[in-house]
Structures are given as structure tokens and as C-alpha cells.
Amino acid sequence: MTPSPVNPLSGLKVLVVDDEPYILKILAFKLRSSGFVPFEATGSEEALRIVREEHPDLILLDISLPHGLSGFDLCRILRENPGTSRTPIVMLTARNLPSEKALGIQLGASAYITKPFSTRQLIEELRRVLTNPPS
């Protein structure tokens, strides 16, 4: 989808990967009301399928995922794939140890946000990441 000239981020696709349906619904609502097009995945396999089919502009990724790959694993896989190596990834997780944050950034996350979080600040951070891509 092409961004609107009034809001250059309007219409951009954001994949939200989280194992909590309640968090998925809240984030999808907030993203939609901010002009984004949200996609939801509850696990790594579903996330990889959506990435292949929808080519999201940003991925909002929890670390603790059920059945299979963790968010760290998924981040590494996405960074190693030429088609997704530059797609911004924002980790959104309850895991707040400095070593976990350092690992997320080392694996290629553009930002690392811990739960609980302010949805307003989260949307601001997504806008910042999308308007300041890595060089």
C-alpha cells in the first residue's frame, strides 16, 4: 500500500507477533487508528508465512513465542534473509534483563521496548524507526 501524502506512514504494513491474543487485539486497534495496516501472528511459523505473503514494512516482535522459534530466533532468521534483512524489527517483550536487550539489538532489532508499555510511546517509536532506517 502507498503512504498518504498527508501522513507518509499511513497504509504501511505492521506485523505484530505476540502469543497473547489480548495484546494482539489492542495493538492492532491502535495501529489501525494510527493509519497503519496491522497483521497478527501468534507464533513464529504464522509470522514467517505472513512475512512471505504480505512483506510488512515493520515487524513488532515478542520474544516468548509458543511452539518452536523464539523472537530472538525469528529476528536472526529475518536478518539473514536478503528479502527481510532491512525490514525494521521492534522487539516488544516482558523480558527486561540488560543481557536480553543487548542480544535483541545485537541480532538486529531496531528498538527494544519492554512491557508494560504506553501505546502512545510505542506508536511514536514505530514512527521513529520507520522514518530513520538503518544505513
Molecular structure report:
This protein has a single domain, classed as Rossmann fold, CATH 3.40.50. It is α/β, with parallel strands linked by helices and 135 residues long. It has five helices and five strands. The model has no long low-confidence stretch (mean pLDDT 91). It has a five-stranded parallel beta sheet, with helices on both faces.
Topology:
Layout: E1 13-17, H1 21-33, E2 37-41, H2 44-54, E3 58-61, H3 71-80, E4 89-93, H4 98-107, E5 111-114, H5 119-131
Parallel strand pairs: 1-2, 1-3, 3-4, 4-5
- What separation lies between the terminal Cα atoms? 23 Å
> Helical percent range?
40-55%
CATH architecture call: 3-Layer(aba) Sandwich
* Number of contiguous helices: 5
Structural class: alpha/beta
Instruction: Give the domain tally.
Output: 1
Would you list the SSEs in sequence order as H and E? Answer: EHEHEHEHEH
What is the averaged pLDDT score?
91
What characterizes the major β-sheet? 5 strands, parallel
**Rg estimate, integer Å:** 14 Å
Cross-sheet strand order for the largest sheet = 2-1-3-4-5
Beta content comes to: 15-25%
Report the CATH topology name. Answer: Rossmann fold
Quick rundown:
With about 140 residues, the chain is α/β, with parallel strands linked by helices. The protein has helices at about 20-35, 45-55, 70-80, 100-105, 120-130, and strands at about 15, 35-40, 60, 90-95, 110-115. It starts with 12 loop residues before the first strand and ends with a helix.
